[in-house]
Specification:
alpha/beta; four-stranded antiparallel beta sheet; four-stranded parallel beta sheet; 15 strands; 483 residues
Length: 483
């Protein structure tokens, strides 16, 4: 079955038909590093992390590009207000985003280019657009895109140009840039340096010293790393207009095919409002993980469909943590009963995973349907533990962990095993040491039972229970787990 994704441009499910068979090129709009990250910022990274994990399980090679916007008006304004160097300000928060990604188990992108590292690519693109008649300069160092020159402008959001007031983000509008436009709906490609701005925040260009407009970097960098045409462009739903409209206009005007599919994730909201700094409802990863493990945050962000809003409330993390604990407890018990499956064993390809799970993931990454299948195998695994059926326990452990791993949530995986109490290595020395001690007492208890010394057997069982060790007797002998 082919992966189908909801394409924002056509507003319907579309099959993934890669430009290069067997290979998928993905560009995701990453962070503008003006401040600390919160869960709203990380929604897209988590959603695309699951997408990429699923594609790789489906035997697709993925090139994943996630950019960093490290120069723009917001960064310059906020760094100036704080008295910091703009590039140091940006780098501080770039590191915070990286730490947040690592904390939540987000796989690193293939490439993570910075806007400031691709100035020459952006200047070349502006020159190309001017030469092709799609852009003009105002004689004062600013260059604008002529929206009337591109017939498909507005096609992503299905808007008519006549109905638009502006095509700039409100935070990017200022009198100096607006003054040179032939039409207020044209948008800035290159901005002349302004009085009072640091000299290091501008670069030489054919139009004078300045810096790129916000939209330019993504067109230039996606082509640099993915070519003239690539498979998927993604980002938060709020980026569709004007950012993604302007990206597409630039790239199409340059003669490039650009993105085949547009995939957007919904917001994280609090009390129905988009989570943002301006609303004062920021929830940082550091604050959230003071009371709950990071995996609970990952669960809350991973287990809702990427096109559905997540309403963040006081009960969000307790509920997420309780749900994950059900699975981590099963995995821990299954390892005690049947041994721990290796990373290689649980990396099952899509062809070896349950059909219902595969169908759900191929249906626009339907995580709710996928979770329903995982729950079925959790139940089967617990039944097998109760029956002391080691082969069945091992089989269900592999399936449950393999499916959870697609969502970045395998309890015994390298990222989360420490939070389950298994330690950080592939093998848990602590668990092995505890098992050796418990097995000694279980052997002594078995001998007492064989001698019909029931008082002694009960005493040993009570001693273990007092230490938090639960003993369960089955047809193949006694097993134990931490209660």
């Amino acid at each position: 079955m082919t992966l189908h994704l909801h394409d924002s441009k056509t507003a319907r499910l579309q099959p993934l038909d890669p430009v290069t068979p067997g290979h998928v090129g993905i560009y995701l709009c990453g962070a503008t590093v003006q401040g600390s990250p919160h869960v709203g910022h990380l929604r897209a990274a988590i959603a695309f992390d699951a997408m990429i994990r699923w594609m790789r399980r489906s035997d697709l090679d993925v090139t994943y590009v996630r950019n960093i916007t490290d120069i723009d008006d917001k960064i310059l304004n906020k760094s100036a207000e704080s008295g910091a160097l703009w590039w140091a300000w940006a780098y501080q928060f770039e590191r915070e985003f990286t730490q947040a990604y690592d904390t939540l188990g987000v796989l690193p992108p293939t490439y993570e280019p910075r806007a400031t590292g691709h100035i020459t690519d952006q200047i070349d693109l502006v020159r190309r657009l001017v030469d092709r008649g799609h852009a003009y300069d105002d004689g004062h160092g600013n260059v604008y895109f002529d929206v009337h020159s591109q017939p498909d402008y507005g096609s992503i959001t299905r808007q008519r140009l006549a109905d638009m007031r502006t095509t700039e983000d409100e935070a990017q509008i200022d009198a100096a840039v607006e003054a040179g436009k032939k039409d207020p709906r044209d948008f800035a490609l290159w901005k002349a340096t302004k009085p009072g701005e640091p000299a290091t925040a501008s670069w030489e260009s054919p139009w004078g010293r300045g810096r790129p407009g916000w939209h330019l970097e993504c067109s230039a960098m996606s082509r640099r790393y993915l070519g003239d045409e690539f498979d998927i462009h993604g980002g938060g739903i709020d980026l569709r207009f004007p950012h993604h409209e302007n990206e597409q206009a630039q790239s199409h005007a340059a003669g490039w095919g650009f993105a085949r599919l547009w995939v957007h994730n919904a917001w994280v909201t609090t009390k129905g409002e988009k989570m943002s700094k301006s609303l004062g409802n920021v929830l940082s990863i550091g604050a959230l993980t003071q009371d709950f493990p990071a995996v609970a945050v990952r669960w809350a962000l991973s287990t809702v469909h990427h096109r559905s809003a997540i309403e963040w409330a006081p009960e969000t993390l307790p509920a997420a943590n309780a749900a994950w604990t059900k699975f981590s407890s099963f995995v821990e018990r299954s390892i005690v009963v049947a041994g721990e499956a290796s990373a290689e064993e649980i990396a099952l390809p899509a062809s070896e995973l349950p059909e219902g799970f595969v169908a759900a993931m191929n249906d626009d990454l339907n995580v709710a349907g996928a979770l329903a299948v995982i729950h079925e195998h959790l139940k089967a695994g617990n039944t097998a533990i109760d029956a002391a059926d080691q082969a069945a326990v091992r089989r269900e452990q592999v399936l449950v962990r393999s499916m959870l791993d697609v969502l970045g949530l395998d309890p015994a995986g390298q990222q989360w095993r420490g939070q389950m109490g298994l330690g950080e290595g592939t093998d848990s020395a602590e668990h092995e040491a505890l098992d050796a001690l418990v097995q000694t007492l279980l052997a002594e208890r078995a001998a007492a039972r064989a001698d019909k010394d029931w008082a002694r057997a009960d005493e040993l069982r009570d001693r273990l229970a007092g230490a938090g060790i639960i003993v369960e007797d089955g047809r193949d002998g006694a097993t134990w787990h931490v209660g």
